[in-house]
């Protein structure tokens, strides 16, 4: 009698195609998140509003994401995740079509806030689906691909949206986002498999929520979320004021300033790609090194701020260092969330958007306080140092067992496939 050993499960060496499909969808939706900044002139003239009022459309989107992510995630817990992705994307494109017929500021504001809620839902569920499809070996790379969608949105989508706005009006940019999102819906329907297992048996909503909330009893999850918020706040405190820094301190002409922002976007794309490749080997080490490197790049930027060439190099290094952390930050949150990561992914989305809102506000306060256009970079350095301190505390905490767990915690570098840049 002979026995045949069962084959060992195949370990992925690269994320599956479906992850890239989700990254492309985030590119389409993320373009709308950021392109408003380039559409401000046309929006102000067409809707007869002030620049600060138009700018509030950006703030409202960030607030909508921060608040909407956990609320919508809880509301859709019993829905199949693929269905949630499709519904959120369809709602997003329909709201952009509605925007084509909006002729007043309050109505446009409403569409932006609801769009943000749907986008936050899509992002959080995409992260969960991507991590499940990728498995433990390449989970951080898969999550970096999603962040890479945002990087490409900054490099290609935002300039394209700005160009459309300048030549055909802001509604043309909204239409382009709707078309791109429609294409992503078709791709998701065809190419993204259903990853659900627990929804095959209908379980009480209360039980599902309890499982998701259990993860938040872990102190190390909160440390990971705080690191995310501080990091994101640091980056946006500095980045939001790069243009006035370049024009007023470096002496770059206004028409050349976008070239430096393009360098930032390219650096972000490269950083996300490289970071995603190494994050799976050690997410915490990736976080610590990336934070430290971004501090050094910030100081370099301040040191060479009088040189146009030096600033271009420093900005490229800054964004490369900063965005190399993206996959690791997300992977750590998923690892600590255990087998019920959906709400944790949503709160992580909120943490990013809290940083998006707080960082620029602090940078603006520094300028308003008379500290000059260099001060937002220093605000960013302070927040990066704080993030590094929190990550250090997290490293100490992770060396000892967590006795407050009511459910097993999963290693961020080894989250099972049953549990949230581009790759060459």
TrEMBL record:
The keyword Transmembrane applies. One of its GO terms (cellular component) is plasma membrane. The chain crosses the membrane at residues 17-40, 52-71, 83-103, 109-130, 142-164, 170-193, 221-242, 257-275, 287-305, 311-331, 343-371, 377-397. It is a multi-pass membrane protein. Keywords: Cell membrane, Membrane, Transmembrane, Transmembrane helix. It is found in: Cell membrane. Residues 18-400 form the Major facilitator superfamily (MFS) profile domain. Residues 401-424 are annotated as: Disordered. One of its GO terms (molecular function) is transmembrane transporter activity. CDD domains: MFS_NepI_like (cd17324). It comes from the Bacteria. InterPro entries: MFS, MFS_dom, MFS_Efflux_Transporters, MFS_trans_sf. Gene3D superfamilies: MFS general substrate transporter like domains. PANTHER family: CHLORAMPHENICOL EFFLUX PUMP RV0191, PURINE EFFLUX PUMP PBUE. This is MFS transporter, DHA1 family, chloramphenicol resistance protein.
């Amino acid at each position: 009698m002979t026995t045949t050993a069962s084959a060992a499960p195949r370990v992925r060496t690269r994320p599956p195609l479906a992850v890239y499909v989700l990254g492309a969808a985030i590119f389409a939706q993320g373009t709308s998140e950021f392109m408003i900044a380039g559409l401000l002139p046309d929006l102000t003239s067409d809707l007869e509003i002030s620049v600060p009022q138009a700018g509030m459309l950006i703030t409202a989107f960030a607030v909508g994401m921060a608040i909407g992510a956990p609320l919508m995630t809880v509301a859709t817990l019993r829905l199949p995740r693929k269905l949630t992705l499709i519904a959120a994307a369809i709602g997003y494109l329909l709201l952009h079509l509605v925007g084509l017929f909006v002729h007043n500021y309050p109505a446009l504001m409403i569409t932006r806030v609801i769009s943000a809620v749907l986008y936050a839902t899509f992002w959080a569920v995409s992260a969960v689906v991507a991590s499940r499809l990728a498995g433990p070996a390449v989970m951080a790379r898969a999550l970096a691909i999603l962040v890479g969608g945002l990087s490409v949105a900054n490099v290609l989508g935002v300039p394209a949206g700005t160009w459309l706005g300048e030549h055909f009006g802001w509604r043309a940019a909204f239409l382009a986002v709707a078309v791109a999102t429609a294409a992503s819906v078709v791709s998701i329907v065809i190419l993204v498999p259903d990853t659900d297992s627990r929804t095959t048996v209908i379980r009480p909503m209360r039980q599902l929520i309890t499982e998701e909330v259990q993860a938040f009893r872990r102190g190390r999850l909160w440390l990971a979320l705080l690191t995310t918020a501080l990091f994101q706040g640091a980056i946006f405190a500095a980045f939001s004021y790069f243009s006035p820094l370049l024009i007023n301190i470096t002496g770059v002409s206004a028409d050349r300033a976008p070239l430096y922002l393009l360098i930032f976007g390219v650096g972000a794309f490269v950083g996300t790609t490289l970071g995603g490749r190494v994050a799976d080997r050690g997410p915490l080490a990736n976080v610590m090194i990336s934070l430290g490197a971004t501090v050094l790049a910030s100081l370099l930027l301040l040191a060479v701020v009088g040189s146009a060439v030096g600033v271009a190099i420093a900005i490229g290094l800054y964004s490369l260092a900063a965005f190399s952390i993206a996959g690791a930050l997300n992977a750590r949150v998923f690892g600590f969330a255990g087998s019920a990561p959906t709400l944790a992914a949503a709160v992580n989305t909120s943490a990013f958007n809290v940083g998006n809102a707080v960082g620029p506000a602090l940078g603006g306060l520094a300028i308003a306080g008379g500290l000059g256009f260099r001060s937002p970079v220093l605000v960013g350095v302070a927040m990066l140092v704080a993030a590094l301190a929190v990550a250090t505390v997290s490293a100490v905490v992770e060396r000892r067992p967590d006795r407050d767990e009511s459910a097993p915690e999963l290693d961020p570098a080894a989250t099972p496939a049953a549990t949230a840049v581009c790759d060459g």
